[in-house]
Amino acid sequence: MLRNSAPLFFLLVSFVFTSCDPNRVFDVYETVPNKWHKDSVATFNIKAPDSTNAYNLFVNLRNTNAYKYNNIFLIVEMTFPHGKTLKDTLEYKMADPTGKLLGTGLTGIKENKLWYKEQVVFKEKGNYVVKIQHAMRENGKVNGVVELEGITDVGFRIERPSKK
Prior knowledge:
Keywords: Lipoprotein, Signal. The protein is mostly beta strands. It has a single domain, classed as Jelly Rolls. Helices cover about 10% and strands about 45% of the residues. Strands 1-10-4-7 form a 4-stranded antiparallel sheet, with no helix packed on it. It has a 4-stranded antiparallel sheet with strand order 3-8-5-6, with no helix packed on it. The longest helix is centred in the N-terminal third of the chain and has 18 residues, at about 1-20. The N and C termini lie far apart (about 45 Å).
């Protein structure tokens, strides 16, 4: 009974914290079952927000201590309503030089809010599609990591810039 309660508790706590966030426009996660396969793509369908304002875009990752790398490489692809596609290969730090995992969280799960783009204006009306997949490689190896351990959730967030 207690084991099945943990995901429900985590969901409830996440809901409480995100529902009180006035800057949040879009914030959705996809769960990674067991290991993140190199061909598995997290896909987010986004209805264009207000086209008169600029927004900041983030990739969000949740990971456990099973994540054994200091960084992560991601391929992020954004398709606009009229078909134009932007594709970026991005690298983010996931641990400090001592190997301590970065991110926030008091439990064994760390949450990382990673900058993707800032001051983006959604000029085209309609639906945007964002796809995220990992592109990890181990040093000295040609082939990529097929199954990446330690990533539990992949998310995408759009928020209003903070007022200073």
